[in-house]
Design goal:
Oligomer: homodimer
Region (Disordered) (chains A, B): 646-685
Number of domains of chain A: 2
Largest sheet of chain A: 5 strands, parallel
Number of strands of chain A: 9
Number of helices of chain A: 25
Largest interface: A-B, 115 and 116 residues
Subcellular location (chains A, B): Membrane
Keywords (chains A, B): Membrane, Transmembrane, Transmembrane helix
Structural class of chain A: alpha/beta
Strand order of the largest sheet of chain A: 6-5-4-7-8
Membrane topology (chains A, B): Multi-pass membrane protein
Transmembrane segments (chains A, B): 65-84, 111-133, 139-160, 172-193, 218-241, 262-283, 326-353, 374-395, 401-424, 445-463, 469-487
Low-confidence stretches of chain A: 1-24, 671-685
Radius of gyration of chain A: 32 Å
Chain lengths: 685, 685
């Protein structure tokens, strides 16, 4: 494992960042911005193109609507950012949309948001990586020729990195994000300078193509529907905005204010970049179509199936910087890298949300404890598997994947904002201070407007995209919702079943005595140790037990027992079928039948070995017996381990595993050290 | 599982046989014959054809050698049967060739035989099922058109049946075997009657074909080599003879004599059937070729790739009984069924041999205990996987698979017979009684002749078949040999490491006191039970331990602890990173550091649930902690189980599983009940 991922890790992350221990410190705004904004900012790499794509259905003339759609997206973006600034102030605990919806609208709303976000994480991986591959492909044709394989390769790489536990570092995010943002702004500025000042004519590589409209002369309702669909696609630019509200605890103080400022900055950057790209696309005459092979014409004939439609950002960059120029290649690389980082964001967000859901018992409890590698690993593998499946099914085509993408985000937006309205209503009911009330009313208005607008967009997205793939996302949400409800129901049932009775001794029979039984097969060190420990325990009675599988071995055991003068009676159980489990279970049951209030303590010597294949060679009967004994009431099962020399290897491995860092720790902020329960306090009652 | 296999099981076995509990009774000869002879007798279904196939390389004229080759096979068969009759008398314990070779020639020879037999079992499955499919295919064309799929289907079916634990019943074997034997004899008799008395001309469906010899006019050394190769192929008829020597304990008394008689009877039947089929094939002019598509000519042109070469037995049956006649179809079905039963034999023999090898610590110990379902399951899956792979790689072509088959058998034959010679030498060295000596000298002569002849055949097989596939079998043997040696070495090393020191307290530090720690997360029934049990144990000190993962929960726990007045001190460990394992391990280590001679007893309340998915939701932290604690010296780990209601389901399943019968029990004979250690005896020392 170590060998396998070190080289790409070094390439992707750089060696020096290893010691960067940001996970334990708080983030200043300049680092928080790239950490949280790589996801929303990277979406400007595909969102403008999606708008043009959809418009092309009505032909080139529909491109004239693109500024209006951009304007609508900008309004929406500003609304959402303004709304979330309220969230951040009101809920600085980092619970995010799930907490807001759950607290204010009830469990079901919370769970719906959680399901939507989980689906969203899967799609973030699928869409971002597909788009990243497409951007990289505009500079390196090989990549786009083997799109699916490359995309799945990147997923595998990210998965391995996260399974190993990469320490997410601010610098890791900062460099590509700032390079990307700078690059886009440089492109916009240089484009504007060339166009407005120098008067250059910049032409995108597709400027000479014509578009054969699928539905020429679209008008009336059909045109409105198409425009709404284009707008829905443009809304992809908003994905990832909600993630910052989970990350407030990671900010430097004043946490809420810094987070809100970062959010505003992020919104501003995103909006400017989005509009700049749309404008440059119009100026450089970028031509994109939903079915480029048929609908794009070169000199009157379709371009054909082997035409590769490059992303809008790379077409614009080519027009502004020139094909193959250093800046062009740098921007393509930075875009791809930021998109991959956005995908990595989901690898962090998924377990983070999982841990919050686990705390509320919607997911297995062990997800709650940080650094539980096994639990996180399962989550990461689940995420990667689902994303990989989507990438494979949809041929790593970001355009088709985006159809699924936006539903989840807007479900979260709408429910979260509605929850915020309730939140302010609740506070207003008791608040008397005038300034505070005015403040709250203002916040409520912002959130109410946000809720209405995002709700409207959700309806638009559902209507325009349902058959295009949104149903897949809804299905995914239902599956998550159903699973989590079932888990919660199970926990509730168990909780009820095991609740301690109020009056002590209510229906719990008080055990009276302990009868200890040491299982022995041979006289060897593990058995002697088990006997020694058992004697220390001073139970009411103690005997050694052996199962007579081989008469000769049993005879030898008896003889040695006597010879050594072991002062514990040895009982031999006959086993005509050479079984071990059944005779022991029967014997234990018979002891319990004789005196039902007694507890039987079964003590099993156990070998501890270092490798799984060694494990196959030992303890198998003991393990099976233990498993069966657990089902027998009134029994306690004790393992007395005997560490073989080879167990050292496993110990070393376990120690190494403990140094693993759970993904997402940088954006979760440091764990709170509590003052209330100082370590090693002892309270006797 | 139950639903899945019940219907085919009923079809294959019939419902009424369920109650047949032959596994617990001894076999009379008339039942033992079909049980043990299905394997060797079924080989006459393919062995004669293989002889013709090889001869065809030299052209039709070489077919004249077939009676001579048949004669050689008969001599060999009679020799082997005579030899094994000596084995059966000398080693009635059922250890078979492995025991004979191991006892007389040393560990390595024994292990070589065991490896050869294990490979042989895999090939028995592959060859028998492929041949069965081919025979069935002569009556049902669909089957042979989807040869590989059908063959793998049968493997899967047999595997499922054996995994579930089919009670092997004598009747199950008796009916198809006797139908098969009767059918073949009826065919030979009716053929002889038609040919000799009625003077009918019976013509096989291939009688009109010509053979284009691959090497026409073969003579001298090349011809001898070809004849030897044909003989080697004919030796396939001998496979399975050795299996009876493992089954002596299953016979009625006098075991050895009955087994020897059965062996003789089996040899006689096999020889007669083999010769009868060869003779009928010659009379009815069966034409077979190694490459039928090219080398068989109809009216001078090759028959082409879609020609299906039916097995010799079905061609002869067609000539004698008529195509599509009831008897023809009955015989084809019985042949296929007997071949499948022969394959099933391997499913029984593999774990049987495995259990003997496990006793000698060449395989994991748990294979030794009967009825250990998990262990047997692994063996069955391994067998099925290897056989399935071979079937797939070799396209379920019995002819190609047979090239691999015979090596293993003859390795076993040769080593076993050599071992017998040593055995008699050893006995003769001390024996003084004249009659006994004469008897032994006679037996030694038979075994010596057997060893020489089978050794010679082994050399012939290796020389003529090595490049045709025998190397694959040898490779398989090496792999088994290597694995088993490594396992034995591991056990020996551990055995040495854990050997009890002679002087008590040699280097084992005697522990002085026990400090008990009960892990508590909440106050619920499992925790209360664990506390109650822990108090009963009267260790030197007792405390409850909780890890502060969530300060609020910890506070609640403390309050309730005090409120309930639990008289055990509660210790709280701080865990800034919400970990559980690490703080507990560190604490236990610190206790051990304070007083190194103390033992720490960690008591963990454990939920017992009924389904694996429930298990994922509970105990995960406890399990991980237990795993880590086992590596910490001076610790004993106690589980106090709390059975949730859902655990009843698992209990029922476990009980059902216990009624499972290990495959191969019928041929292993009943387990010996030993008089020495009566059940529930108690010996206090």
């Amino acid at each position: 494992m170590s060998k396998l991922t070190d080289v790409p890790k070094r390439i992707l992350i750089g060696r020096a960042l290893r010691s960067d221990r940001l996970g334990e410190t708080l983030l200043p705004k300049r680092v928080a911005l790239p950490v949280f904004a790589s996801d929303p900012l990277s979406s400007v790499a595909y969102a403008p193109g999606e708008v043009l794509l959809v418009l092309s259905v009505a032909g080139l003339s529909a491109y004239h609507f693109s500024p209006w759609i951009a304007a609508a997206v900008v309004v929406l973006m500003l609304t959402v950012v303004a709304s979330y600034r309220q969230n951040v102030h009101a809920y600085p605990s980092g619970g995010g949309d799930y907490e807001v919806a759950g607290t204010n609208l009830g469990r079901r709303a919370g769970l719906t948001v959680a399901s939507a976000l989980l689906v969203d994480y899967v799609l973030t991986v699928a869409v971002s990586i597909s788009a990243g591959i497409e951007n990289l492909g505009s500079a390196v044709p090989f990549v786009v020729e083997h799109k699916v394989a490359c995309a799945i390769g990147v997923i595998v790489l990210l998965t391995l990195m996260n399974l190993r536990g990469v320490k997410e570092s601010g610098t890791l995010f900062a460099i590509p994000t700032y390079v990307f943002v700078t690059g886009i702004f440089a492109m916009i500025a240089w484009g504007a300078f060339r166009g407005l000042v120098l008067g250059d004519e910049m032409r995108a590589p597709t400027a000479d193509l014509e578009i054969e409209p699928e539905h020429p002369g679209l008008a009336g309702f059909a045109l409105v529907f198409l425009l709404l669909r284009a707008f829905s696609s443009g809304c992809a630019a908003l994905t990832g905005v909600e993630a910052l509200s989970n990350g407030v605890p990671a900010f430097r103080r004043p946490k809420a204010r810094n987070a809100a400022t970062t959010l505003a900055l992020m919104g501003l950057l995103a909006v400017t970049m989005f509009c700049g790209i749309i404008a440059l696309a119009a100026v450089t005459k970028v031509r994109m179509a939903e079915n480029p092979a048929e609908d794009l014409l070169r000199d009157g004939t379709p371009v054909g199936a082997d035409y590769i439609q490059h992303p809008v950002i790379s077409q614009v960059a080519e027009a502004v910087f020139g094909h193959g120029s250093v800046l062009f290649i740098l921007l393509a690389a930075a875009t791809a890298l930021v998109l991959f980082l956005a995908a990595n964001t989901a690898y962090n967000g998924f377990p983070l949300l999982g841990s919050i859901l686990a705390q509320d018992r919607y997911l297995p409890r062990q997800l709650h404890t940080r650094g539980d590698r096994l639990a996180f690993s399962n989550g990461i593998v689940l995420l990667a598997g689902a994303a990989g499946l989507l990438v494979w099914v949809y041929g790593a085509d970001s355009t088709r994947l985006i159809q699924l993408y936006i539903v989840g985000v807007f479900v979260a937006f709408t429910l979260s904002q509605s929850g915020m309205v309730r939140h302010w209503n609740r506070l207003l009911a008791t608040e008397t201070d005038r300034t505070a009330r005015r403040h709250m009313i203002r916040s409520r208005a912002i959130n109410a407007f946000g809720a209405c607008l995002t709700g409207l967009v959700l309806v638009v997205v559902l209507v325009t995209k349902f058959t295009h793939g949104a149903w897949v996302a809804l299905l995914g949400m239902c599956i998550f919702y159903g699973t989590m409800t079932a888990i919660r129901r199970h926990y509730d049932r168990v909780f009820e079943e095991i609740a301690a009775p109020e009056a002590p001794g209510d229906d719990m029979v008080r055990p009276s005595r302990v009868h200890s039984v040491v299982l022995v097969s041979k006289i060897h060190r593990p058995a002697l140790r088990a006997l020694a420990y058992a004697k220390l325990m001073r139970s009411d009675s103690l005997e050694a037990l052996t199962v007579n599988v081989d008469p000769e071995e049993t005879r030898d055991l008896r003889e040695e027992w006597e010879r050594r003068g072991i002062d514990v009676p040895l009982k031999v159980l006959d086993s005509p079928y050479r079984e071990i489990t059944r005779p022991v279970i029967e014997y234990v049951k018979s002891l319990r039948r004789e005196s039902p209030r007694d507890v039987v303590s079964v003590i099993i010597p156990e070998y501890v070995v270092g490798h799984w294949y060694e494990h196959l060679l030992h303890n198998q009967s003991a393990l099976r017996l233990k498993g069966r004994l657990l089902f027998t009431p009134g029994v306690m099962v004790t393992s007395v381990p005997y560490q073989l020399r080879s167990s050292e290897a496993a110990k070393r491995r376990a120690r190494k595993r403990q140094e693993w860092t759970a993904p997402g720790s940088v954006r979760r902020g440091p764990a709170e050290r509590t003052k209330e329960t100082p370590a090693n306090s002892r309270s006797d009652t």
